[in-house]
Specification:
Elements (H helix, E strand, L loop, with lengths): L2 E4 L5 H14 L7 H9 L3 E6 L7 E12 L2 E11 L8 H15 L6 E2 L6 H9 L15
Parallel strand pairs: 4-5
Antiparallel strand pairs: 1-2, 2-3, 3-4
Length: 143
C-alpha cells in the first residue's frame, strides 16, 4: 500500500510535500532546499512514504537523526509525520520500523525518541512498538 524510501535528492515535489507536512507536526519554519540538502549530506537519514506505490503522492516522512558526542554515536527518531489523509492506516508504524531497520544496518544497538504527551496516538504507538518510556527531564532554553 505505502512505499517507503530514502531521500537522496531534493525535488520540487519534496519541497511541496514538506510545505504540507511540517505544519501538521509543528509551527517551526519550513525547511529550505539548502537545509534539506545539509540533512541529506549528513550521517542522518531522511525517509518519505508514498501512497500508492512508487509514483503516488508523498504522504509521510521521518528522520533518523545521527550525531556524535564524546560518549559515542547516537541515533534519535525525529519528525515522524503522517499526512492527515493517511492516518490510521499503519503508516506511522511503518515509518518508524523503516528507521529502526536503518539504525540496525548502521550498527546502532538502540535509538531514542521524544514525543509530546499531547500526541496521544503517537505515544500509544511507540509503547506498542516496544519503546520504553524513560523517566527523565527534558529542558529547553530560549535563545
Amino acid at each position: 500500500m505505502f512505499t517507503i524510501h530514502p531521500v537522496t535528492s531534493i525535488t520540487p515535489e519534496l519541497l511541496v510535500a514538506f510545505e504540507r507536512l511540517i505544519p501538521q507536526l509543528t509551527k517551526a519554519p519550513l525547511p529550505t532546499r539548502d537545509e534539506l540538502q545539509v540533512l541529506i549530506d549528513s550521517p542522518s537519514r531522511l525517509i518519505v512514504a508514498r501512497s500508492p506505490g512508487e509514483t503516488g503522492p508523498i504522504v509521510g516522512a521521518a528522520c533518523l537523526g545521527v550525531f556524535r558526542t564524546p560518549s559515542g554515536l547516537h541515533a534519535h527518531v525525529e519528525d515522524v509525520i503522517v499526512d492527515e489523509s493517511a492516518r490510521g492506516q499503519g503508516l506511522g508504524e511503518a515509518l518508524v520500523n523503516a528507521l529502526l531497520q536503518i539504525a540496525r544496518e548502521m550498527g546502532f544497538k538502540g535509538v531514542s525518541l521524544t514525543c509530546n504527551p499531547r500526541r496521544v496516538a503517537a505515544n500509544q504507538l511507540y509503547k506498542k512498538m516496544g519503546f520504553k518510556e524513560w523517566k527523565t527531564n527534558t529542558y529547553w532554553y530560549d535563545l
